[in-house]
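Field: COMPLEX_INPUT
Field: COMPONENT_COUNT = two
Field: RESIDUE_TOTAL = 774
Field: MODE = joint
Values follow.
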Amino acid sequence: MFRVKYVFLQFVCLLQEKKEREREMALRNIMGKRVGIGLMGSRALSTATCDVESGSAKSINLYSAINQALHVALETDPRAFVFGEDVSFGGVFRCTTGLADRFGKARVFNTPLCEQGIVGFGIGLAAMGNRAIAEIQFADYIYPAFDQIVNEAAKFRYRSGNQFNCGGLTIRAPYGAVGHGGHYHSQSPEAFFCHVPGIKVVIPRSPRQAKGLLLSCIRDPNPVVFFEPKWLYRLAVEEVPEHDYMLPLSEAEVIRQGSDITLVGWGAQLSIMEQACIEAEKDGISCELIDLKTLIPWDKETVEASVRKTGRVLISHEAPVTGGFGAEISASIVECCFLRLEAPVARVCGLDTPFPLVFEPFYMPTKNKILDAIKATVNY
Amino acid sequence: MALSYLRSSSSRSANLLKPLSSGLSLRSPISTDTTPITVETSVPFTSHRCDAPSRSVETNPKELLTFFRDMALMRRMEIAADSLYKAKLIRGFCHLYDGQEAFAVGMEAAITKKDCIITAYRDHCTFMGRGGTLLEVFAELMGRQAGCSKGKGGSMHFYKKDSNFYGGHGIVGAQVPLGCGLAFAQKYSKDETVTFAMYGDGAANQGQLFEALNISALWDLPAILVCENNHYGMGTAEWRAAKSPAYYKRGDYVPGLKVDGMDALAVKQACKFAKEHALKSGPIILEMDTYRYHGHSMSDPGSTYRTRDEISGVRQERDPIERIRKLILSHDLASEKELKDIEKEVRKEVDDAITRAKESPMPEPSKLFTNVYAKGLGVESFGADRKEVRATLP
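Field: COMPLEX_OUTPUT
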């Protein structure tokens, strides 16, 4: 009897999940596909060439793409709010321009200087069924809010037995080096959040990706931390469709096909890796480049399939190497593909020091470091 | 500003002697003269849960001239930093303090180098007040070895251990609990010293401040929390960020004092009062009503959230250096020409320091790995490929 009841409950859960998933699919305009080679502009990176093509597209940069995504989000959902420090005039990176004028101060508003307050407040707002889009001005300032994210947001659904959830919460923060940021305007804290079951961490690599991914994050029924590479705010320019579209979360994308080595990365680092791939091509090394897009829950299958093809893997990120998310990818790949691996998993990451001021060029995982590691791995 | 002479004969005889001394162009009698003068502060103090100190401040010619010189030096230094930043010799972030100099000099006049100071990132002038040299400032700003933090800190991270200046912190509000911790240590060591933990009007809304305040009040720590209220937290006006912009009252059960932060003498009086209070009865909040002429940092023009009229209005009416200049001139402590000479001297000093700082080299690449951990811990560090460049951290 008990077993029957248990199986019945499992069946009910599966049905619920299926229904939820169907509802989500219905909301989406597109099913993202995994496509290999896309178009490469001088600074733009290749993106998924799927149904995104329908409708007109304009050439815009990253902060404009994010701005468009926020406009769409607030337009389509009357219970969406955008708040954070200095967002109402447009924000320090202009990601929120025009929102306050269009949607009013009741939906787009400034908060005082209190990150813990901002996120906690956002959790409460989301718990009442609203879509709270909180902005933390720089990822380096997210630590006062760390407790709220880890202890409150991530565990809300779990500890209340699904009675409550703060799925409507999306936290946006610019992360990453910018050339002159120093200790507190350049950090990449994604690894800290990847250790927390219950939230999702998403990092786009280009304007087109950013708009689609941000809309998915906002509409995802789980709390999401969305890191935006600040280096690319103005530098990355790409054709971005003007209509409402979403890109799927937890699906990695192979943006460059290859057969000798798999490179895994995310965010601004991908453009550096792509340059290294082009250089390696000249030496006859064919590199496969994968954009993880969602860091947790990450797409193990895509990476695994690629490693089974090439037998070698290199991971690169700006955060310090010890304890960075590359370590998780490395451990998982070794677990599943140990016998297939031809060489140890290489990690080309930031050094184990605080993010330096004048030493930034030494600290960063540059194209040459990646190239050296590619060659060392291929010639192992 | 009401002036009152409290002594009779000595000042009159000084007046009689003055033509002689100025005729002989003797500068030293004036600059070391310590005959007391009493001056009234611009506005009376407003207090919360304590008795405000008197409006009459004792000072002397030497002090006034020192104030003038120090503030002129700080002003010139900040303006020079502005040009260096625009010339891309200073990179990263640069938050300038011009307009707020009265607080740095006034506070120093009331305390000793044994008292601790900790502040946020707008720390160039505070560092100078603690005895820092121009060379250290400019070298650090340009990231050179001769800088106070050996070029590894930059504009936001100036420190000076021998005069108990605990820096230079980037994260807003994070330095206040640290300051209260310093006060805790001072209470233990029983050396009659206090800590000044400075923060801005933006940081006044951070939760950690209130946590630190509660602990300080509970344990009677000699902590003085100073809110340098320049009315704009980056670009946000104080009335848009705070329900109660009366920051001196925010401590609730902790006494507070509101001071005109552009009047160096009022600042000195308030800091003296605060030090006595802190040593006797625990924490106190000082709110300095001040103003910064530059924007929040060098990437902020400073005029999108406030009018140019407002900035020039404050510069005309409340500029700290002008106030001291008027005081000096009206008391005949020095002539116009002498003050202009001081300013020229100061300008030259700044230019010399910049030249010397430019000659200082950048830190060695190996210094990237130094001071991550304490010396001798033998921790390994390696570069990206992990195969070469394995170094034991010094």
